[in-house]
Amino acid sequence: MRNITLFIAFASLAACSKKFVTLYPEGQVNEGNFFKSASDFQEALAGAYAPLRSAANVAFYLEEMRADNTFFDYNAKDRGGSGAEELAEFLDNSANTTIQTLWTADYQGIQRTNIILDKMASPPADMNDSAKNQVIGQAEALRAHYYFELVRLFGSVPLYLHEVTDAKNAVVNRSPVDAVYTQIEADLTDALGRLSPPSKWPQSGAITRGMVATELGLVYLTLKQYDKAAPLFQSVTQMGYALLPNYADVFKTANKNSTESVFEVQYKSGTDGQASQFIYYFIPTTPATGGILGASANYNNTEGSWNIPTQDLINSYEPGDTRLDASIGVIKGHLNAQTDFIPDSVVSILANLDTAGKGYGYTTSLAHRFIKKQFNPPYNTPLIYNTDDDWPVYRYSDVLMMLAESLNEQGQPGAALPYLNMVRMRAGLPASTAADQGSLRDTIAHERRVELAFENHRWFDLLRTGQAIPVMTGYGVLQKQAFPFLLPSSYNVAPNKLIYAIPFRETQVNPGLGQNPGY
Questions:
Q1: Helix (H) or strand (E) holding 391
Q2: How does DSSP classify residue 432?
Q3: Among 516, 508, 504, which Cα is nearest to 97's?
Q4: Three-state secondary-structure class, residue 342
Q5: Residue among 226, 213, 147, 228 at smallest CA distance from 180
Q6: 434: which residues sit within 8 A by CB, 6+ positions away?
């Protein structure tokens, strides 16, 4: 699948020769000999899932580092990666390459799902009704998922509902936000009736009715249609999902697609291009990773120092909350003669709290925080940047908290509280006694922050609850006090910064897209 920009160039060349577009190479998979059997559609569906990885590989910059949970290590020796830093500081613009990467990934996914759905108008003879529903339901859910990410990040976006086959239909202007949400709702509603709940654990990683009900519920929660959201979340509680007893176990690779997993982006280590590498992003840049990953994985890591847990987040954990030690670790080390950070060991954060709030910086700290959720040693593979960690999208604890929120917003705090307390008590905390809607609203927001830390929910939660501007403005003041390298213009959280710029390349290809205000 090619992105829309490249497709226009290809279509222009193809139009020069009818023979070119009607002859198909023998012995190769192509339009002329594919989509002829049920197995072809399964292969195409696997291809429609693949852009989830491309999006997840960069989404944490836009959806977690944008908020107050994470920041970055400032390395004065190496000023590469300034585009990612801009996202955290609200200094980004339309030329930001990370924004372009995510946009492209989501539209690749949309094009692939559109091809499948168009081809399903004439399904192959060997595909029974059950198989048809599985293919259509998963394709619709994937398309809705890609659009749900795009509309929350960019506002109004182009709405493609059929395969892009030529230059003429490749250029589509943006649809209003309401129209995009209407299509998301339609896709998820239809998929809900086609797909089944999970039947066994561990799951295969494919989309099920549980994922569709969860995402459609979140769509309604985002639109403040709480009466529609609550029944969907309640239905998920009847599908066999359960919290794992130990929070830390949720993120072990041995527990991928467990009873707590509603949906996660699938990765697989190896040489077929499906491996993850999140831990390399999250540990420091260092010429020697052995003190973190083990002697058999002693590499020069040039990708690190991103998504670093903030002191603001650490301060929000209650005493005794087991999620703190399960989510955040500390790497102790020393500086070599070139002032490079050399890790010595990974230790518990519980005995290494940095109350000064400056646990960053290659010349100021010999202890670096990092996210532990994708830390699954030992690393014995000879391949660098090659791990087996999935990326969690929806977990059952998330469903319970969203159900509590949807009930509370309907004026039912008493009905909401038990679902929230299931999450708190798993973390080793006493049950909340919040009795009124306002206090429970604050408690739910707090629980979501610490339970789902580093899972790309925090920025969307701040947007959805109308707290992005006040929270991030106050946080920005503290950041600029702590880190002198921040510019005075950083953390200017104006309303236009609640969505990102349409990527520059897209507006050059199609000037009709226009640009979001303020960019």
A1: strand 391-395
A2: P
A3: 504
A4: strand
A5: 147
A6: 413, 417, 440, 442, 443
Neighbours of 374 (CB within 10 A): 25
From the list 205, 185, 207, 188, the residue with the least C-alpha distance to 196 is 207
Any residues with CB less than 8 A from the CB of 226 and at least 6 apart, and which? 220, 405, 406, 407, 409, 410
Question: Is 395-489 in the same CATH topology as 1-19+40-198+490-519?
Answer: yes
Task: Of 119, 112, 155, 154, give the one whose Cα is nearest residue 7.
Answer: 112
Residue where the block lists tokens 């072990």: 252
The partner residues of 369 in beta bridges, in order of sequence, read 330
Tell me if the bond preceding 378 is cis, omega within 30° of 0.
yes
Q: Around Cβ 92, how many Cβ atoms within 10 Å? A: 22
Q: What is the pLDDT along the chain (519 residues), one digit of tens a residue?
A: 434 443 433 343 334 444 444 545 555 566 668 999 999 999 999 999 999 999 999 999 999 999 999 999 987 777 677 899 999 999 999 999 999 999 999 999 999 999 999 999 999 999 999 999 999 999 999 999 999 999 999 999 999 999 999 888 899 999 999 999 999 999 999 999 999 999 999 999 999 999 999 999 999 999 999 999 999 999 999 999 999 999 999 999 999 999 999 999 999 999 999 999 999 999 999 999 999 999 888 999 999 999 999 999 999 999 999 999 999 999 999 989 988 999 999 999 998 776 544 444 444 468 899 999 999 998 877 789 999 999 999 999 999 999 999 999 999 999 999 999 999 999 999 999 998 999 999 999 999 999 999 999 999 999 999 999 999 999 999 999 999 999 999 999 999 999 999 999 999 999 999 999 999
Contact in structure between 102 and 51 (CB atoms under 8 Å)? no
Tell me the CATH class for 395-489: mainly alpha
Q: List alpha helices for 435-482, DSSP H.
A: 437-451, 458-464, 468-482
Element (H, E) at 347: strand 341-348
> Are the C-beta atoms of residues 89 and 74 closer than 8 Å to each other?
no
> For the chain, which residues make up each domain, given as ranges?
1-19+40-198+490-519, 278-376, 395-489
For the domain made up of 1-19+40-198+490-519, the CATH class stated in words is: mainly alpha
Do residues 463 and 67 make contact, with C-beta atoms less than 8 angstroms apart? no
Q: Are 268 and 390 in contact (CB under 8 A)?
A: no
Rg (CA), the chain: 23
The token pair that represents 174 in the structure block: 């943006």
In order of 50, 125, 348, the CA distances from 112 in angstroms are 10, 22, 44
